[in-house]
Amino acid sequence: MSIPFTSPDLTGTHYARATMVNAHFDGVNLSGARFFAVLTDATFTVTNLANATFDNVNLGGSSLNNVNLSNSKFTYANLSNLNISGVTLENASISDANLKGMRINGILVTDLLAAYETAK
Question: Which of 49, 51, 81, 94 is close enough to 74 for a disulfide, judged by CB 3.0 to 4.6 Å?
Answer without folding.
Answer: 94
